[in-house]
Specification:
By secondary structure, this protein is mainly α. 56% of the residues lie in helices and 0% in strands. It has helices at 3-21, 46-69.
């Protein structure tokens, strides 16, 4: 795996993981202010979720990298 394809694979993994992590800990406010969506989270904690996503993605990327470089899976006949 080259460095460009490694970055592309990492970004794809990161986006998949962020969409899995976003719903964690989301609580709508008890009494939303006028003009705000009632389903909008009170404290979305996006920086924490981005950090968690980065760590999880790095671990998954290492597994994918090892699987590709050590030929655990054969992609060519």
């Amino acid at each position: 795996m080259g460095w460009v394809s490694g970055i592309v694979v990492y970004l794809m993994i990161w986006w998949m993981v962020i969409f899995m992590v976003l719903p964690f800990g989301v609580k709508p406010p008890e009494d939303p202010e006028p003009g705000h969506a009632p389903s909008a989270p009170e404290r979305p904690m996006l920086w924490r979720k981005a950090a968690i996503t980065t760590v999880i993605s790095a671990v998954v990327w290492v597994v994918v990298y090892l699987a590709v470089t050590r030929h655990w899976f054969q992609f060519r006949p």
